[in-house]
Amino acid sequence: MKVVRIDERAAARRDLGRAEAAVSAAARVRGLMAEARAAAAEHLEALEAAIQVARDLALDVSAGGEAYGVGAREASRQLAEDLFWRGKTLKALTARERAGRMAH
Q1: Parent domain of 98
Q2: Residue 1 pLDDT level (bands cut at 50, 70, 90)
């Protein structure tokens, strides 16, 4: 008959507790990462919307005629074009990141 000492049982329980804590920590990290990714996606959507609003304003100014000076109209036209392409780039990067996460 094998005699098991109490301190060996306590050590086994400690080891089991550590393993459970590690699993719990890993699950918590995964949950926090998922939450952070969701918040980042919402933030990027807000940025895309803000870029569109700024682009619309720039287009309004560029088409404003004599109410705005030539320099302001031209700068607004250039800004609207730049924001168009920046918005497209941001959407493409966001879509690529989203597709990469879905693949994992």
Answers
A1: 6-103
A2: low
